[in-house]
Structure prediction request, 83 residues.
Amino acid sequence: MKETAAAEAKDKFGELLEIAKSEPVAIEDEGRQVAVLLSFAEYQRLIDLEDRYWGEKAVKALDSGFVAEPEATEWLRKKLSDA
Prediction:
């Protein structure tokens, strides 16, 4: 991963955009990494990966007995009306 200072990133933004098409670019401010510039394709891959992860967690939760939002809402309404 390429690393660059924030001031340099400001001055060479176009060049860094080209680099980001093939590899992430870490941007540092006062010696610590504060941001990463990456291609939209890589960003989309990460979003898709996260969606798949949480989707699998939701399926496992439902399979193990957790209820979905409509059932939980109905259960709560019934409990509140009985009170």
Q: What stands out?
A: The longest helix spans residues 40-63. DSSP finds four helices and three strands in the chain.
